[in-house]
Amino acid sequence: MSGARLLRLAALLLGFGFLYGPIVILATMSFNASRLVTVWGGFSTKWYAALLHDEQMLRAAQISLSAAALSALIATLNGLLAALALARFGGFRSRTLFAGSIYAPLVMPEVVLGLGLLLVFVAFGVERGFLTLVLAHASFTMCFATVMIHAALKGCDRTLEEAAMDLGATPVRAFALVTLPLIAPSVVSAYLLAFIISLDDLVIASFTTGPGATTLPMRIYSQVRLGVSPEVNAISTLLLGLVAVALGLSALLTRGRAKGGGAG
Amino acid sequence: MPEGGKRRRLTRGEMLVIAAPYAWIALFFLAPFALIVKISLSHPAQTRPPYEPVFDGAGLAGFFEKLSQLGLDAYRGLAEDTLYLDSYLSSLTIAGGATLICLLIAYPFALAIARAPRRLRPVLIGFAVAPFWTSFLIRVYAWITLLKDEGIINHALMALGVIDAPLPMFATSGAVVVGIVYSYLPFMLLPLYAAIERQDASLREAAADLGATPFQVFLHVTLPLSRRGIVAGALLVFIPSVGEFVIPDLLGGSDTLMIGRTLWNDFFANRDWPAASAAAVALLALLLVPILLYERAQLREGAR
Question: Is the ipTM, as predicted for this complex, more than 0.95?
Answer without folding.
Answer: no
